[in-house]
């Protein structure tokens, strides 16, 4: 009876065999397919397997015949190509926000989309400096709750935490919860952020989701206004440093010889470069001026300096004097 039950599932088992053991570079011959089915306790013969292969094709599975001796059969095209899976695995492995265990769990699931042969090439490990050691599962649950509130059109209530001088997490507002309308979620600088409308303050504000706790979806309808309606997460032509924005400015940098990559790494192709006779360069880029921007320049010492505009140089010098308490 057991073999008879398996025989009814022969087409599905055949698909499983092809998915696990074949790809664009590896196929299985007809004798090998019959052998694999027999090992599973499923009686099979050539004509029946041909019928099953055609059934899979009719269902939309990309079973192709590889012109080899003997002829082989393989599932060539999958949901993701091998390079795409490699890219996804590398992206997950490189994410500082995930713990090592979480990254491995996700990449393990991704490798199930590949054949056994391809899976060996996906066994990649990328060392990530500064990877989080705390569990991020709470953040993922928080994101699910926030998305559910947006889907239902409801406000959310939560506690927001800051770290005090002793290094302990303390709720803000003396422990009173925040209540806001969630507008959108973004990811930047290895953190998730909630953009929300606050009726109390009458504007949009941002909360780091890993600092939020005890999130609840309320029965109160989400606020509706023109600011929320027209809010869009857009790429800014002015490069921001951190999440603090700042006034836009077109800045000319003086770049030391051999240090041009500092500019291209930070600003990409949007920066204009002008080589100088002494091997140095002038670079023009659009930035949003903030203390974080000045901190970036200061950290580069003399390899990259603000050359213009003069008013921005004065502002930078004032920032440095402020750090010295002058």
From TrEMBL:
Q: WYL domain spans which residues?
A: 142-217
Pfam families for the chain: WCX, WYL
Q: Name one GO molecular function term.
A: DNA binding
Keyword terms, alphabetized: DNA-binding
Q: Per its UniProt record, what InterPro entries does this chain match?
A: CBASS_pafABC_assoc_protein (IPR051534), WCX_dom (IPR057727), WH_DNA-bd_sf (IPR036390), WYL_dom (IPR026881)
Q: Where is the WCX domain?
A: 248-323
Span of the signal peptide: none
Q: Per its record, how is this protein called by name?
A: Putative DNA-binding transcriptional regulator YafY
Question: What organism, scientifically named, is this protein from?
Answer: Parvibacter caecicola
């Amino acid at each position: 009876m057991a073999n008879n039950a398996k025989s009814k599932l022969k087409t599905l088992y055949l698909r499983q065999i092809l998915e696990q053991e074949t790809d664009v570079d590896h196929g299985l011959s007809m004798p090998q397919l019959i052998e694999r089915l027999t090992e599973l306790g499923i009686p099979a013969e050539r004509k029946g397997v041909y019928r099953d292969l055609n059934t899979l094709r009719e269902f939309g599975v990309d079973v192709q015949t590889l012109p080899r001796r003997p002829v082989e059969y393989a599932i060539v095209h999958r949901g993701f190509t091998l390079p795409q899976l490699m890219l996804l695995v590398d992206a997950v492995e490189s994410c500082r926000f995930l713990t090592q265990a979480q990254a491995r769990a996700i990449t393990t699931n991704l490798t199930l989309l590949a054949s056994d042969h391809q899976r060996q090439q996906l066994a990649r490990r990328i060392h990530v400096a500064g990877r989080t050691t705390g569990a991020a599962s709470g953040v993922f649950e928080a994101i699910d709750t926030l998305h559910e509130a947006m889907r239902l059109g409801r406000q959310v209530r939560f506690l927001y935490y800051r770290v005090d001088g002793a290094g302990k997490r303390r709720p803000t507002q003396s422990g009173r919860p925040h209540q806001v309308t969630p507008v959108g979620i973004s990811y930047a600088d290895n953190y998730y952020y909630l953009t929300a409308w606050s009726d109390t303050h009458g504007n949009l504000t941002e909360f780091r989701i890993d600092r939020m706790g005890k999130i609840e979806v309320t029965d109160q309808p989400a606020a509706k206004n023109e600011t929320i309606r027209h809010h869009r997460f857009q790429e800014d032509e002015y490069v921001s440093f951190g999440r603090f924005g700042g006034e836009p400015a077109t800045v000319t940098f003086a770049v030391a010889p051999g240090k041009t990559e500092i500019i291209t790494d930070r600003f990409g192709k949007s920066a204009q470069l002008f080589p100088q006779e002494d091997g140095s360069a002038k670079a023009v880029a659009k930035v949003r001026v903030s203390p974080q921007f000045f901190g970036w320049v200061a950290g580069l010492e003399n390899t990259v300096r603000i050359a213009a505009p003069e008013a921005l140089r004065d502002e930078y010098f004032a920032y440095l004097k402020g750090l010295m308490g002058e």
